[in-house]
Amino acid sequence: MRILVVRNDKLGDFITALPAMYVLKQHNSQNKIVAFVAPLNKTLARSCDFIDEVIVDEGESVFALAKKLREAKIDASITLFSNTRVAFAQFLAGIPKRIAPATKIAQIFYTQRITQRRSEVKMAEFEYNLELTKALFSDIHLGYKKPLLAFEDAKNVYDNFCKEYRIEKEIIAFHVGFGGSSDANWNLDEYTILIREVCRYGKYQVVLTFGPDEKGLCEEMRQRLQGEDVIFYLSLEGIVYFAKLIANFKLFVSTSTGTYHLASLVGCPTMTFFADTLFASAARWRGVGDEKLQEHFMIPQDAVKRSELFERIREKI
Fold first, then answer.
1. What whole-number percentage of the chain has pLDDT above 70?
2. 75-98, pLDDT tens digit by residue?
3. Which domains are assigned to the chain?
4. Of 104, 137, 106, whose CA–CA distance to 23 is shortest?
């Protein structure tokens, strides 16, 4: 069976779809898993051995997209996040079985609509995605390996990185930027304090990581941390290279953003900051990796409580 799995949004959202794709492949090795993804997730999707084909959403018209999907000869689709364009394109493509959550007007274009009420956050986002696979195979096993993604050359990538930057200690990485659904983070003054604490301890090498569009932020942090033994790494080699690199870090410290989900995906221990709201909480957005490797903190909106939490983290780190 050729199964289309749709998750064509941001990096973190796409990563929450990977367990569902994995269990669909494990259920029957003859299943062909076709991932429909945003351009930024193309290379990561192609690195997953449980994904057979990748279709990239180029933002084309609904009719051009329908043609692309029709040519892919899909037997069934599971749309983990839907909009009217994607839903209508699948309808026009004549995909026989089309499964999606029962939300938004787009649901009228699916043959099977599953009530989930994700806003109630009774489980994590990736668990809701896993649950949708039961609509296609009622006896499917929802367990998956952790870490879900591993690379044979990840250690070589890490070793070369350490050699290039003359690193001889284990790495604690800070990713101070954020985007996507994340709406809570420490400010740069607070991050500077936390980073200085790790530097003062002296046991680990601190690496600050930045996305390719965060050059300005990188320069600002460089100015703030003058004189500290900190490496500033601007990730220009792509998501897959970055995934291989962080798979070997001792700890990845960040807010709940795409890089946090990437770290969890490849088995890196994480310390992550979430908003103190149900929608943006760890209950909904925890990583797909081993829960024992994830440490979550909810940043309160109240200034006093926020300050108290910061001091606890400062002592802990």
1. 98
2. 999 999 899 999 999 999 999 999
3. 2-135 (3.40.50.2000), 154-316 (3.40.50.2000)
4. 137
